[in-house]
Write a structure and sequence with these properties.
Helix content is about 75%, strand content about 0%. The protein is mostly helical. It is a multi-pass membrane protein.
Length: about 500
């Protein structure tokens, strides 16, 4: 009798788990699986390479010298761990809602609300910076010097928005070519720089070699503290690596493609960031590089290569457009996922005939138009106004990814979900270590006066806004959430909490 009851209960649990998964997968209805391996691989590369390398490395070399390579390596290693945590969740259930959908499953709708809107805040602010960067890069060429900055910002916005609204295939193709330009630029530098270093050549009157590090103050010419402070800036250079998780929901064969794409990220970071910086400081003294100019332009200019400034300007222009492209893609999907869970207005759940969550993209474009207006009113101040706010969004996002991975492992141990073979290496130790690292980044931001200090000080204000937002949407979220019969502790608790509200 007891065995019969146990068998019936087991069958009931299996049925409930199937309904649970079916409900979650219903949130993905309407998306086309249009991305192939070629495009996903390049999206993974593009997310790991941005203007932080091409343009920001010059200023960072001035601050920390050759130790920048070590900082890139450490931050890159944690970025890889975060991607592996995300990969574990993707193998469990590919979702265009990415970590927002996983937060809903393992932490409840309230956590999903916070994760989604903080990520939206990140890309909303970053997009304004990106269109500003595009306008600034266009002014590099004298022929465009008289064109107002806001005109270029508007043109860039219309171009990228149009590609995103047409369909995911167009987004993926555009991102493929943007990433290819960035990779080609670094590969050319590595080949040329490596050949000069290997042959013992001279650059700008200096004999190349590792002795340039020792003879110019060593690895830490300004001490250890500048390198530590630089960590919080370098982390944001890797912002965007998590985009590969969002793309998984529209990938033709996510289970086969995503593990390869994620595993290759650490090698790309090692080559593109660490090897590039190490090569730069072995070709010229680190003090030869300066803020406001790409270190790659500095190097090629010293060789007397004609037109190198224009070539590199095309590269950083591609990097800015790539980031803008990714922002529109991801916010549309995140807002759709929030809407499906009741944490955003219903209109964000609408899909076009091309399977594009167009309302979320249009709303994001409207926010970016504010960036165009800012380019008209205060063109020199736009970066400082919004860039630091975006930083909180990426720390929050990465934190939610790791916490969801930890909750997933707990659910596996309880037998509530099926295990996966693609796991985060070293977990749970590496999970806790990554969370500690993200907390350390937040602390370092607080010491970066004035911008970082004020950014951290704004956290209570953001918390109040999130509480108000949740109060406004919790009634709809309560209606959209799963019934408490589903064996998910987080979701059951969420129902009880919202009823108490």
């Amino acid at each position: 009798m007891n065995s019969r009851m146990q068998k019936d209960e087991s069958v009931r649990q299996d049925v409930v788990k199937t309904d649970h998964r079916a409900w979650l997968e219903s949130h993905e209805a309407g998306y086309h699986k249009a991305m192939g391996n070629r495009q996903v691989q390049m999206i993974a590369i593009g997310g790991a390479i941005g203007t932080g390398l091409f343009l920001g490395a010059g200023a960072r070399l001035q601050m920390a010298g050759p130790s920048l390579a070590i900082v890139y390596l450490v931050c890159g290693a944690f970025s890889f761990l975060i991607l592996r945590a995300l990969g574990e969740l993707v193998m469990h259930r590919p979702s265009s809602g990415s970590f927002v959908s996983y937060a809903r499953e393992f932490l409840g709708e309230k956590a999903s609300f916070v994760a989604g809107w903080m990520y939206f805040l990140n890309w909303a602010m970053t997009g304004i910076v990106d269109i500003t960067a595009v306008a600034l890069y266009m002014h590099y060429w004298g022929a465009f010097g008289q064109v107002p900055q806001w005109v270029f910002a508007l043109i860039a916005l219309c171009l990228v928005a149009g590609m995103n609204l047409i369909g995911v295939r167009w987004f993926a193709e555009m991102e493929f070519w943007f990433a290819l330009i960035k990779v080609a630029a670094i590969v050319i530098f590595l080949i040329v720089g490596g050949a000069i270093l290997g042959s013992g050549g001279r650059v700008a009157g200096h004999a190349t070699g590792i002795h340039l590090i020792a003879s110019n103050g060593g690895l830490f010419p300004h001490g250890l503290m500048p390198a530590l402070v630089l960590v919080q800036g370098v982390v944001f250079a890797f912002a965007g690596v998590e985009l590969v998780g969002t793309a998984a929901g529209e990938c033709k064969d996510a289970n086969a493609v995503l593990p390869r794409a994620i595993n290759r990220v650490i090698w790309r970071i090692a080559v593109f960031y660490v090897a590039s910086v190490a090569l730069l400081v072995c070709l010229m003294p680190w003090s030869a590089y300066k803020a406001g100019q790409s270190p790659f332009v500095t190097f090629f200019s010293a060789l007397g290569v004609p037109g190198i400034g224009s070539m590199m300007n095309i590269v950083v222009l591609s990097a800015a457009l790539s980031s803008l492209n990714s922002g529109l893609y991801s916010t549309g999907r995140v807002l759709h996922s929030l809407s499906m869970g009741g944490s955003a207005p219903k209109l964000f759940a609408r899909m076009s005939a091309q399977s594009v969550p167009y309302t979320g993209i249009v709303v994001t474009v409207a926010i970016y138009v504010i960036g165009v207006v800012l380019n008209y009113l205060v063109p020199s101040s736009v970066f400082e106004l919004v860039l630091n706010v975006a930083s909180l969004g990426i720390i929050s996002t990465w934190g939610f990814i790791v916490v969801c991975q930890m909750k997933f492992r707990s659910a596996v141990a309880r037998g509530e979900v099926q295990d996966v073979t693609f796991r985060m290496p070293g977990a749970p130790f590496t999970s806790w270590l990554t969370l500690l690292f993200l907390l350390g980044v937040l602390v370092l931001m607080a010491f970066d006066y004035p911008n970082g200090t004020w950014t951290v000080a704004s956290i209570p204000v953001l918390a109040v806004l999130l509480v108000i937002g949740w109060k406004m949407t919790s009634a709809r979220a309560r209606r959209a959430v799963l019934p408490p019969t589903i064996p998910s502790i987080a979701l059951t608790q969420n129902v009880l909490e919202t009823e108490q509200d």
